[in-house]
Sequence to fold (268 residues):
Amino acid sequence: MAAPTHALARTSTVRFRPPRFGLSGSQLGESPGPDGDAVAVATVDAAYQAGIRFFDTSPAYGDSERRLGTALQRRPRGEFLVSTKVVGDDPAASVRASADRLGLGVDLVFAADETAYPALDELRRDGVIKAVGAVSEDWLALDRRVRDFELDCVLLTGQYSLLDRSARPLLDRCSARGVSVVVSHLLTPQALQAEKLGILARRISAVCERYGVSLPQAALAFPSRHAAVTSMLIAASTPAEIRADAALVRRPVPEKLWRDPELLGLLS
Fold:
């Protein structure tokens, strides 16, 4: 699957475009027992009712895959996209096990280890999955993989937000190569409440408030302003959390906010 850099297509058209807003299943598997099952299924149902059609999970998220599958099996399969992660040394076996737990086919598979890509590429060519992606907390690692492999998508868990834009070179490379970017670990209301805001966050928040925009609202809107960012994943553990985040996403952010000289200076 590896190819010389010059052999990879360069295009501004994204080859694979996940839905704009997705539910991360990272918290769906945390609570044990039947009560945990019920809350997780209700959370997925609330996300679906809010218009969310992208659901990300992993074998590493406890019972997340099983619970997500329980909720989604009642929905028309052609209406939503499911992604998961590779674990272990056998990518094909990992994908099959995930599909069994979900009770659903998997559309998009992310791998942290680049040795998994040849096997995933074969699954993609055979039509078992639709797309192959890479996941990392390190944008430089993702940048190398976008350069060296034929990926459809990358999952960036941090390093591109209102407060940290260090991954911008990765996004520019993805845009040039037609690779979609999914951003996770955003500055959600829950995350912002849990963190002591620094000076930069307070200054950005003050600018946003002049336009009637909250900091969480701006944080959710910011990443997709880059052409490569097709999707944002939000983690939620209750129906109320995902409804609140979905409501924020639907609330428009005035374009003039992004042109505000003070904000541009803070984001430079």
